[in-house]
Structures are given as structure tokens and as C-alpha cells.
Sequence to fold (232 residues):
Amino acid sequence: MGKDVIIACDFASAEETFRFLDRFTEEKPFVKIGMELFYAEGPAIVRAIKARGHKIFLDLKLHDIPNTVKKAMAVLSGLDVDICNLHAAGGVDMMKAAIEGLTRADGSRPLLIAVTQLTSIDQMRMERELLIEKPLAEVVMQYAENAKTAGLDGVVCSPLEARSVHERCGEMFVTVTPGIRFRAADSGDQQRVTTPEEAKILGSNYIVVGRPITASSDPVAAYRRCVTEFRG
Ligand code: C5P
Fold:
């Protein structure tokens, strides 16, 4: 089971991304490519970062009818990424179709994980806008279980949910957790945050860290601090 720090490369262009990655002369961090960068630069950015020797989490959060997701995943499987994802809200059949699409002729495939409820959705929004009246924590756990039933490898969740997800879905079910800050005071727009060390104690397998590294005056030192606190 992996245990690693993934840097969220939330940049607008390849140029900005490479300027950032060029600062890492000794290590090859695991990087997350999100919608902004992928839509700006296309699949070429994935191939270029992979060619530099980085592992990649392609965070495109697919959500459509099963057949469409299956075909899109088949395209993504050719990009040789390490992790990709979709919305569990698309249902168990969509998630099963995604795995079929992602699996290559030789049986290999990237890890596939599901977003449960976005961290921007709170209890009130879920009830008023989505008409889901169960407690948020229960919805997250049900979606995690649906992902496991479909054969997925894990979920994106808050570090604060990681322990319950492992208890419900098993130690081998991967938890990838954003919402990481060195100190709670720096939480910004992330609602429920932990430090890298707390995430480790709570059982996260991968932490996704963006601004605490990308906006730091010394990103390499900030990355190393995350690695030491999370893996040390
Ligand atoms: O800058 P920060 O550390 O908040 O970045 C966290 C990253 O994780 C961003 O790329 C954000 O889109 C992503 N993310 C998140 N919450 C989720 C899913 C993804 O913060 N539920």
C-alpha cells in the first residue's frame, strides 16, 4: 500500500507547471493534475510530466452514463497515469463500467478512486439542494461502500473520515485525502483540515497538498516537511 505526498499542481499552464517542477532537483514528487491544467494543455501535459519521471494522479472526476464513462476511461488508460477518479454519485453501474474501460488488454490499470461528497457540499446544501436528508457522514460511508462494491480501489475523502472508511471498507481500501495544512489557522477555503502528521495518525494513504507547497516561498522545503511529517 502506497504512503505518499501528492502535490496538487493547480496551475493554469504547462509553462507555470514546469517552472514549479524544475525546482525539484533531487526528488520526483507524485503530482496531481486537475481539470484546469488538463483542459488548458490537454493530454500532452500528462505525457510530458510522466516523461519527467513523476507519478500522476489525474483528477478529472468523471460523472456520466456508464457507456460514456467507460469509453472516456479507455482513453485515459492509454495515458499511463497512476491514479484517476470519478464521482461515486454516478452509481455502481457507472463505476463498474469505468473499471472495464480503464483495464488494459494485459489486465493492468491505474488505481481508480471515487469522490464521495465534495468538501464544498455541507449538510445544509445536501438537504436543500440535493434533497438528501441523511447525515453527511452516513452518505460518505454509503458512497465509499458503493465504490468498494463496484470494485474500485478507494476514495477521496477528508483525513477526518479516513479511519471510518478503513473500518467500513478495509485497510487495503485506499484513502486519498486533501484538506492538509501545517497549522489549522491557515485553513483558507478548506473547511475540515488536518496537519500531515494528523493525517498519518488517522490512517490516510495519500495526502493531497496544494497551496501549502505551491504558494510557499520555498516549495521544496515545504514538500520535504510534508513528507517527513506524513511518512517519518
Ligand atoms: O491548495 P489545497 O491544498 O487546498 O489543494 C487541495 C487540492 O485537492 C485541490 O486541487 C482541490 O481541488 C483538491 N480537492 C479538495 N477536496 C476534494 C477533492 C479535491 O480539496 N474533496
Q: What stands out?
A: Residues 95 and 202 are 27 Å apart (CA to CA). The radius of gyration is 17 Å.
